[in-house]
């Protein structure tokens, strides 16, 4: 009786741990760009430039342009950007504080970028992947949606501040709109908002509300497509084309080029690091 009583909860507890183990093994490689550069060209391109890989699958007469050349850094630039995200004695990358109101947010002189998205879109996982070269930084990744209820501020050395915003949609905190709207409208050093969309399901109703908010406040924002490892190529391409059409025709402030990423395979993560280093003024890549 006792043994049976113990077995069930233990089994349940072990499940997420086993899943975490799988993810950790998958992530134990390709975190650094040097590892990516050692891959055969085709595989390297897929990891470093996932959008280019998708573009190659389009027929030449396709009317949709994926704008792959809008931000097209050299491999050298991507390597250089990595130093911004690498924790060293001189480059301290750390969690600073959390806030539920803008007037409680740390007052920092550095440029700032923020990440917003629906609960469960993969925001914490993405931030964790971006910070994988600073393993001391604790970014909590939850199995349950609605985990992030505060704005979490991370300092990236002398370079910039990264803000993890609470997830919207299911189980969003009640004061979410107030908190996020005020932040987006009033944060003076906010350089760019990264709006995450789940590539498996595309733009949902709640995503449209966030997009509407960015448009209304005339914010420069970037759409990041998460979990690209989860879909077949065909499905992913279909979603990307739909989202690209939306960005081209329905938005003003959105950066024309999409950023597809996977926090499991690290696909697109290095390019995103390089983009962030650029827009925070810490690297100069041609074309930006
Ligand atoms: P958040 O609520 O937006 O912070 O989402 P999480 O980062 O906690 O991720 C939600 C779920 O999606 C978790 O089960 C993650 O393991 C999973 N997930 C996040 N990113 C990826 C990804 O790139 N690929 C896959 N396959 N799963 C992911």
Automatic annotation (TrEMBL):
Record-linked InterPro entries: EngB_GTPase, G_ENGB_dom, GTP-bd, GTP-bd_ribosome_bio_YsxC, P-loop_NTPase
Entry similarity comment: Belongs to the TRAFAC class TrmE-Era-EngA-EngB-Septin-like GTPase superfamily. EngB GTPase family.
GO molecular function: GTP binding; metal ion binding
Keywords: GTP-binding, Magnesium, Metal-binding, Nucleotide-binding
NCBIfam families: GTPase_YsxC (TIGR03598)
Any one of the GO CC terms: mitochondrion
Name of the protein this chain belongs to: GTP-binding protein 8
CDD domains from the UniProt entry: YihA_EngB (cd01876)
Keyword GTP-binding tagged: yes
Cofactors required: Mg(2+)
Record flagged with keyword GTP-binding: yes
Lineage: Eukaryota, Metazoa, Chordata, Craniata, Vertebrata
Organism of derivation: Callorhinus ursinus
Gene3D superfamilies tied to this protein: P-loop containing nucleotide triphosphate hydrolases
Domain (EngB-type G): residue spans on this chain: 109-282
Entries under PROSITE patterns matching the protein: G_ENGB
